[in-house]
Design goal:
It contains 17 helices and 16 strands. The protein is α/β, with parallel strands linked by helices. The protein folds into two domains: about 220 residues, Type I PLP-dependent aspartate aminotransferase-like (Major domain) (Aspartate Aminotransferase, domain 2, 3-Layer(aba) Sandwich), CATH 3.40.640; about 140 residues, Alpha-Beta Complex (Aspartate Aminotransferase, domain 1), CATH 3.90.1150. A seven-stranded mixed β-sheet has the order 1-9-8-7-4-2-3, sandwiched between helices. Strands 10-13-16-15-14 form a five-stranded mixed β-sheet. Strands 5-6 form a two-stranded antiparallel sheet. Helix 5 crosses helix 10, helix 12 packs parallel to helix 17 and helix 14 packs across helix 17. The longest helix has 20 residues. The N and C termini lie far apart (about 90 Å). The protein binds pyridoxal-5'-phosphate (PLP). Pyridoxal-5'-phosphate (PLP) binds next to helix 5. It comes from Spongiactinospora rosea.
Length: about 400
C-alpha cells in the first residue's frame, strides 16, 4: 500500500465526506449549458484571490459577485440586443426585472435628480419611483410620451434619466425612441428603455439611440413561467457602474434561474415570432366582435402607434412583429371586463406576460396603476398571447364575449 493511501485512511469520515472525489473538468464543450452553482471558488494562493477580487486576474469572485452561468445569460441578451448596435454592448443580470430597474435608478440618480417616465408605466416601476425613490429626494414626472413637446417641456436642469417602455402595457403605446433620444441627448440625460414587452425579436432600442435596455427576463426571455430574473444591457462603461451597484446591493441573479433564462433564449425568436403572428390574427378577429368597444394592439391600423411600430419594429416573411399583448375592452365597463376574463376557458387568468400559456388580466382589478390614473377603461382586459393555436384562442374569447351580450348591465 502506498504512503499516500495510508495517509488518506487516517482522514476522518467527516473530512473525507467533504473532500470527495470530483470529476475532472471535461475539457470538451457541450451543447447544453452547464449550471455552475458554485457560490465560492478555490484559489491557488491569497495573491491570486486578491487579483480576482480586484479584477486584475482571471477567475471568478464569490457568489453574488460573479458566476459563469449568470454572466452567460447576460452576454446572451447583450448579443441579441446589440446585434447591430453602434457601440459594444455589455450586460448585467439581476434577481428580477424590478431589481434591474432599481439598480439602474440607484446607479445613475442621486438626491435632487429628476426622472421622466411614461404614463402608463409598469406598475412596479411607478411604485418604485413614487413610493421608494421619492423618499430619497428623487422626483418624477409622468408624461404622455405620445406628446413629445410635453416630454421636451418637462425636462429640467436635474433630469438624469428619460425612462421609456418600447411598448407600454396595457395601452400598447409605442415609444418614439428616436424622438426621445434627441431630447435625452440635448438634456444630457440617459435614455433607458424597458423593452420587456418587445424583446429583441421585435425591436432593439440600442439601435435607436437608447443608452441602456432592460428586461424583466421573467417574461419573454425565459418564456416558460418558471424562473425570475432581470437584465440590463448597453454601453460597457455604464454597465460597469451598474455592476458595482449590483454587487453592493446584492440583487444578483441565481445560477439556477440564469440557466433556465439562458435556455429560454435559444427558442426566443421561434416563440416570439409565432406569438406575434397569433396576436395579430387574434386582435383583428376580436376587434370585429359586436361586444367589443376597443382593441389596443399596434398591429391594427387604427392604433396610434401603428406607423411608429412599422418604422421601429422588425419584420419577417410573416409581416411586421407588433408584440404579443392585446388589450380588449368590451362595452359595459368594469363588470363586463371582469365577466370577460372570468368567462375564458382556455386562457388562464394572470397578469404575467410572455409565457407559453395565454393569460388574461382584467386591468382595473389587477394592475397597480389603476385605469382611472392612466385613462384606461375599467373594462379593459389585457391578453398575453401564448403558443396555442390562434383559432382555439379566438373561439375561446368569442364565446366569452358572446355571453357578455346576454349579461345585464347595472
Ligand atoms: C414591463 C415590465 N417591466 C418590469 C417588470 C418587473 O419584472 P419582475 O416581475 O421580473 O420583477 C415587469 C413584470 O411583469 C414588466 O412587465
Amino acid at each position: 500500500m502506498s504512503a499516500s493511501r495510508r495517509a488518506r485512511r487516517r482522514l476522518g469520515e467527516n473530512t473525507r465526506s467533504i473532500h470527495l472525489p470530483r470529476p475532472e473538468s471535461p475539457g470538451q464543450s457541450t451543447f447544453g449549458l452547464p449550471v455552475w452553482r458554485a457560490a465560492s471558488w478555490n484559489f491557488q494562493s491569497s495573491a491570486e484571490y486578491a487579483d480576482v477580487l480586484g479584477g486584475e486576474g482571471p477567475g471568478h469572485a464569490p457568489g453574488r459577485i460573479d458566476n459563469p452561468t449568470t454572466s452567460s445569460f447576460a452576454a446572451a441578451v447583450a448579443s441579441l440586443e446589440g446585434a447591430a448596435a453602434p457601440e459594444d454592448v455589455a450586460g448585467q443580470a439581476f434577481a428580477s426585472g424590478m431589481a434591474a430597474v432599481q439598480a439602474v435608478f440607484l446607479t445613475f440618480l442621486r438626491a435632487g435628480s429628476h426622472v421622466l417616465a411614461p404614463t402608463p408605466v409598469y406598475g412596479g416601476t411607478f411604485s418604485l419611483l413614487t413610493n421608494v425613490l421619492s423618499r430619497f429626494g428623487v422626483t418624477t414626472d409622468f408624461v404622455d410620451y405620445a406628446d413629445l413637446a410635453r416630454v421636451q417641456s418637462s425636462v429640467r436642469a436635474g433630469t438624469k434619466i428619460i425612462y421609456a417602455e418600447t411598448m407600454t402595457d396595457p395601452t400598447m403605446a409605442v415609444a418614439d425612441l428616436r424622438g426621445l433620444y434627441r431630447i435625452a441627448r440635448a438634456a444630457g440625460a440617459l435614455l433607458v428603455v424597458d423593452s420587456t414587452l418587445a424583446t429583441p425579436v421585435v425591436c432593439r432600442p440600442l439601435e435607436h439611440g437608447a443608452d441602456l435596455v432592460l428586461h424583466s427576463a421573467t417574461r419573454y426571455l425565459g418564456g416558460h413561467d418558471d424562473s425570475t430574473g432581470g437584465v440590463v444591457v448597453g454601453r460597457p462603461d455604464l454597465i460597469q457602474r451598474l455592476r458595482e451597484v449590483r454587487i453592493d446591493t446584492g440583487c444578483s441573479l441565481s445560477p439556477d434561474d440564469a440557466f433556465l433564462l439562458r435556455r429560454g433564449m435559444e427558442t426566443l425568436p421561434l416563440r416570439v415570432r409565432r406569438m406575434c403572428s397569433t396576436a395579430m390574427v387574434f386582435a383583428a378577429a376580436v376587434a370585429k366582435h359586436p361586444a367589443v368597444r376597443r382593441v389596443d394592439y399596434p398591429g391594427l391600423s387604427d392604433h396610434p402607434g401603428n406607423l411608429l411600430a412599422r418604422h421601429l419594429f422588425d419584420s419577417g416573411p410573416e409581416g411586421t412583429r407588433y408584440g404579443a399583448c392585446v388589450t380588449v375592452t368590451p362595452t359595459g365597463g368594469y363588470q363586463a371586463g371582469a365577466a370577460l376574463a372570468d368567462g375564458l376557458r382556455l386562457a388562464g387568468i394572470g397578469s404575467a406576460v410572455g409565457g407559453t400559456h395565454t393569460k388574461a388580466a382584467h386591468v382595473a382589478a389587477t394592475a397597480r396603476l389603476t385605469g382611472k390614473d392612466a385613462g384606461i377603461d375599467a373594462g379593459a382586459v389585457r391578453f398575453s398571447v401564448g403558443l396555442e393555436d390562434a383559432e382555439d384562442l379566438i373561439a375561446d374569447v368569442t364565446r366569452a364575449l358572446d355571453s357578455l351580450r346576454t349579461m345585464k348591465t347595472p
